[in-house]
TrEMBL record:
<feature type="domain" description="Histidine kinase">
    <location>
        <begin position="231"/>
        <end position="440"/>
    </location>
</feature>
<dbReference type="InterPro" id="IPR050736">
    <property type="entry name" value="Sensor_HK_Regulatory"/>
</dbReference>
<keyword id="KW-0808">Transferase</keyword>
<dbReference type="InterPro" id="IPR003661">
    <property type="entry name" value="HisK_dim/P_dom"/>
</dbReference>
<dbReference type="GO" id="GO:0000155">
    <property type="term" value="F:phosphorelay sensor kinase activity"/>
</dbReference>
<keyword id="KW-0418">Kinase</keyword>
<keyword id="KW-0902">Two-component regulatory system</keyword>
<dbReference type="InterPro" id="IPR003594">
    <property type="entry name" value="HATPase_dom"/>
</dbReference>
<dbReference type="InterPro" id="IPR004358">
    <property type="entry name" value="Sig_transdc_His_kin-like_C"/>
</dbReference>
<keyword id="KW-0175">Coiled coil</keyword>
<dbReference type="InterPro" id="IPR036890">
    <property type="entry name" value="HATPase_C_sf"/>
</dbReference>
<feature type="transmembrane region" description="Helical">
    <location>
        <begin position="137"/>
        <end position="160"/>
    </location>
</feature>
<dbReference type="Pfam" id="PF02518">
    <property type="entry name" value="HATPase_c"/>
</dbReference>
<dbReference type="InterPro" id="IPR005467">
    <property type="entry name" value="His_kinase_dom"/>
</dbReference>
<feature type="coiled-coil region">
    <location>
        <begin position="198"/>
        <end position="225"/>
    </location>
</feature>
<keyword id="KW-0472">Membrane</keyword>
<dbReference type="InterPro" id="IPR036097">
    <property type="entry name" value="HisK_dim/P_sf"/>
</dbReference>
């Protein structure tokens, strides 16, 4: 708007000056025609004045003031304007006064004749045509200025969009993409902005993302290392617990040498179990892909029960209801760990009640899967444990438990392309169902 005002006001003042000078020039031409012929009819004189757009013309030549052309003036002269002495301020002031005054007035204008054809020329004219022409010119100026402003605005919008908006959107897009996978180095932004400040921002963001990606990779390695230690400790604890059960029996041996060494063996194993349990505060790591082979599920289930010191005659009792000839394709060591975790959890839950109970391992198959069911007659899982059952360090069902066993079991089953679910858990006991697919994936998709 400031630019519009700075353009419009001088332009309208200049137009008024040009308008009046043109009238002076036309009047001078008419008066010179009279001086050349020295005789004009009243009709021709009136026609000359009408063509010049004035009432009277006075041309001063040779120090003589001569009335060249005249006609009746409808009203007294309202104001006199001498263009020979007018400066920019007077021209602008008089132009604005003419615009705001719609009254029809007679004005006198004085100026220098063109081509030095006299000392001065003086005319009288009506102010209404002048004001009308100024309004029409002003309207054209405003329309042209509006068009120029619109074009300028569009060009400015395109320039800002190209130089500022699009680079900023690119930075935001890179930030969102990087947030989805900060460990992916391909998502680190590559500076390309043409504006110096934006390029500096992109370079700073690139440095930050690079450092953060490196830090995440380092933390991931540490987490995997800690998780590996935790898993090894968890499974080693299970192995040592089994060894501890057998070592307890050595204490009742009649052999004096065995009776003397048995307590030391039990204490050593107990310390090893405690050391394993103290390392379970670490995170988890990825398991190696399962090494699939044909194996007898019945033999595997019997090994699990025997390793836990369970049988149909023990307390709690362990029943294995698996067809003797049932063969599955799986990693025997990993499935052994899965079943051991489930059976041990069931035994601990039953023993915590102080009542008798039963653990059952059953299995079967259909057209697509082998299924293994592990159930017990324990007290069932608490609601809090069921919410995060297969999440490490959150799904522990007993006091002091880490919940790592079920998380490891779930990961091992997923590695086989199978699923493990809690089918039932209430006051009558709990039941887990494992499904292993018979159809194996190609080697490249394992």
């Amino acid at each position: 708007m400031l630019a519009e005002v700075l353009i419009f006001v001088p332009s309208i003042a200049r137009f008024r000056e040009d308008f009046l000078l043109l009238r002076l020039e036309k009047a001078q031409i008419a008066s010179l025609a009279l001086l050349a012929e020295n005789m004009l009819t009243p009709e021709l004189e009136a026609e000359l004045l009408e063509n010049a757009g004035v009432y009277n013309v006075v041309l001063r030549r040779d120090e003589v003031r001569q009335l060249a052309l005249s006609s009746p003036i409808p009203a007294p002269v309202h104001a006199t304007y001498d263009l020979r002495l007018a400066g920019p301020y007077e021209l602008i002031r008089d132009a604005l006064a003419c615009l705001v005054d719609p009254t029809e007035r007679v004005i006198r204008v004085i100026g220098n004749p063109v081509k030095d054809a006299g000392l001065l020329i003086e005319i009288t004219l009506n102010s209404v045509p002048l004001r009308d022409e100024m309004l029409a010119y002003g309207l054209r100026i405003l329309i042209l200025s509006a068009l120029i402003s619109m074009v300028t605005a569009v060009l400015l919008f395109l320039a800002v969009r190209r130089l500022m908006v699009l680079p900023i959107r690119r930075v935001v897009s890179h930030m969102r993409s990087y947030a989805e996978a900060p460990e992916d180095a391909r998502r680190v932004i590559q500076p390309s902005a043409q504006v110096t400040e934006l390029r500096d921002a992109e370079e700073s963001l690139q440095s930050l993302q690079t450092q953060l990606t490196g830090a995440l990779r380092q933390k991931e390695r540490l987490a995997q290392l800690g998780g590996a230690v935790a898993k090894i400790s968890h499974d080693l604890r299970n192995i040592l617990t089994t060894a501890q059960l057998f070592a307890d029996r050595l204490e009742s041996s009649a052999d004096p040498a065995v009776a003397r060494t048995a307590p030391k063996l039990v204490n050593s194993i107990s310390r090893a179990v405690g050391l394993c349990e103290s390392t379970l505060a670490f995170g988890k790591a990825e398991e190696h892909p399962p090494r699939l082979e044909r194996l007898s599920l019945r033999r595997l289930a019997d090994d699990v029960a025997e390793g836990e010191g369970l049988s149909p005659a023990t307390e709690p009792a362990c029943l294995v209801d698996v067809p003797a000839g049932m063969m599955i394709r799986a990693d025997g060591e990993q499935i052994h760990r899965v079943l051991t975790n489930l059976v041990r959890n069931a035994r601990q839950a039953i023993e915590a009640t102080g009542r008798a109970g039963t653990i059952e391992i059953s299995a079967g198959e259909d057209d697509h899967d082998w299924w293994i069911r592990v159930g017990d007659t324990g007290p069932g899982l608490p609601a809090k444990a069921r919410e995060h059952l297969f999440t490490a360090f959150q799904g522990g069902a007993r006091k002091g438990g880490t919940g790592l066993g079920l998380a490891i079991a779930a990961e091992l089953v997923r590695g086989h392309g199978g699923t493990i679910t809690l089918e039932r858990s209430d006051e009558e006991g709990s039941e887990f169902l494992i499904r292993l697919p018979k159809e194996s994936l190609p080697a490249g998709q394992m």
